[in-house]
Design a protein that fits this description.
This protein is an alpha+beta fold. It contains 3 helices and 5 strands; from the N terminus they run H-H-E-E-E-E-E-H. It has helices at 3-14, 18-37, 83-89; strands at residues 42-44, 48-55, 58-61, 68-71, 74-81. It has a 3-stranded antiparallel β-sheet. The protein has a two-stranded antiparallel ribbon with strand order 3-4. The longest helix is centred in the N-terminal third of the chain and has 20 residues, at 18-37. The radius of gyration is 19 Å and the shape is elongated.
Length: 91
C-alpha cells in the first residue's frame, strides 16, 4: 500500500475528504519522524512501538578489493509490533 492508497482508505473509512486524509497522514508521519529524530520512542497502543537504534562505528571491508574501511556510526528507525497486531496477522 502506498501513501496515496492509505490516504484514500482513510478518507473512505473516516468520511474525510481525500485532501484532509492526506494532510492528517502527513501530520502523523511528521510527528513520528520528529520524535524519532529527537531520540524519543513513539508507542501506539494496539499497533506497535517505533524506536531509534544506534549502531556504533566499526571497521569493515570493501567486498570488491578487500581493503579495510571505517564505517561511520549511524541511527536507524526500528518497529516492534504489539501482541495485538501480531495476533491479527496470525489469525
Amino acid at each position: 500500500m502506498t501513501k496515496h492508497e492509505l490516504a484514500k482508505q482513510v478518507a473512505a473509512d473516516s468520511g474525510l475528504s481525500g485532501e484532509q486524509a492526506k494532510s492528517a497522514i502527513d501530520a502523523a508521519f511528521d510527528a513520528i519522524t520528529g520524535e524519532l529524530a529527537a531520540g524519543r520512542d513513539v508507542a501506539i497502543a494496539g499497533f506497535g512501538k517505533f524506536s531509534v537504534s544506534d549502531r556504533a562505528a566499526r571497521e569493515g571491508r570493501n567486498p570488491a578489493t578487500g581493503e579495510r574501511i571505517q564505517i561511520a556510526a549511524s541511527r536507524a528507525a526500528k518497529f516492534s509490533a504489539t501482541a495485538a497486531l501480531k495476533a491479527q496477522l496470525n489469525a
